[in-house]
Amino acid sequence: MLGFRSFDSAASALAGIELVNMIRKGQFTPELSPFQQFVQLVG
Question: Is the pTM of this model over 0.90?
Answer without folding.
Answer: no
